[in-house]
Amino acid sequence: MKVVVIRSTVYDGKDIVKGSELKIVDGKSGVAKDEISIAAVAVLERLGKVEIVEDETDIDVIEDNTTPIEKMKKDELLAYAGELEIEVDDGMTKAEIIEAINASEEE
């Protein structure tokens, strides 16, 4: 399964260039220049940076593994915010973390 980058971005220290194709792999991103993890795809897809282009079955798997932020636990929200490089801390409430995530997505 692959994704197409529709908006250039940086993720996990890696430049992801508009128009490039990435292969989705299990595990951590960065194994190869053109590979990205399922978790990273979920984040980047939510931000409108990538689009899945192949195999409807695999698309369903990605969607099933994506939890709406409103239903995430606080530790999941903290991890998600960290992946997005949003400054949050464990002293914040869930509502404050969600607000910070939503505000960053509007930028």
Structure description:
Mean pLDDT is 75; it is low at 56-65. Helices cover 38% and strands 20% of the residues. It has four helices and six strands; from the N terminus they run βββββαβααα. It has helices at residues 38-46, 56-64, 74-83, 94-106; strands spanning 2-5, 9-11, 14-16, 21-25, 35-37, 50-52. The protein is elongated and about 40 Å long. Helix 3 (74-83) packs parallel to helix 4. It folds into two domains: 2-64, no CATH class; 69-106, no CATH class.
Q: Classify the beta-strand content into a percent band.
A: 15-25%
Count of alpha and pi helical runs: 4
Average pLDDT over all residues: 75
Provide the structure class. Answer: alpha+beta
> What strand order characterises the main sheet?
5-4-1-6
Q: How many domains, in number, for the residues?
A: 2
Terminal Cα span: 29 Å
Helix content: 25-40%
**Major sheet attributes:** 4 strands, mixed
Low-confidence stretches: 56-65
Provide a concise account of the structure shown.
The chain has 107 residues and is an alpha+beta fold. The protein contains 4 helices and 6 strands; from the N terminus they run E-E-E-E-E-H-E-H-H-H.
Features:
107 residues, alpha+beta, 2 domains, four-stranded mixed sheet, two-stranded antiparallel sheet
What order do the helices and strands come in, and which of them pair?
Blueprint: E1 2-5, E2 9-11, E3 14-16, E4 21-25, E5 35-37, H1 38-46, E6 50-52, H2 56-64, H3 74-83, H4 94-106
Parallel strand pairs: 4-5
Antiparallel strand pairs: 1-4, 1-6, 2-3
Helix pairs in contact: 3-4
